[in-house]
Amino acid sequence: MGLQVRDLLSAASAADARGGAQGQDSQPAPIRVAAERRVSPLVLAGIVRASEIGLVAATGIAVHAAYLRGHVSLTWPYLGALLVITALAAISFQAVGAYAVTALRSLMQTGLRLAGAWSFVFLCVIALVFFTKTGEALSRVWLASWYLAGLGILLLERVVLALVVRRMTAAGSFERRTAIVGGGEPANEIIRALQAQPEIGISIVGVFDDRDDARSPPIVGGYRKLGTVSDLVDYARQSPLDLVIFTLPISAENRLLHMLGKLWVLPIDIRLSAHASKLRLRPRSYSYIGSVPVLDVFDRPIADWDLILKSAFDRVVGTLILLLALPLLIGAAVAVRLDSPGPILFRQKRYGFNNELIEVFKFRTMYVEKTDATASRLVTKNDPRVTRIGRILRKTSIDELPQLFNVVFKGNMSLVGPRPHAVQANAQNRLYDQVVDGYFARHKVRPGITGWAQINGWRGETDTPEKIQRRVEHDLYYIENWSVFLDLYILAATPFSLLKTENAY
Question: What confidence score (pLDDT) does residue 115 get?
Answer without folding.
Answer: 96
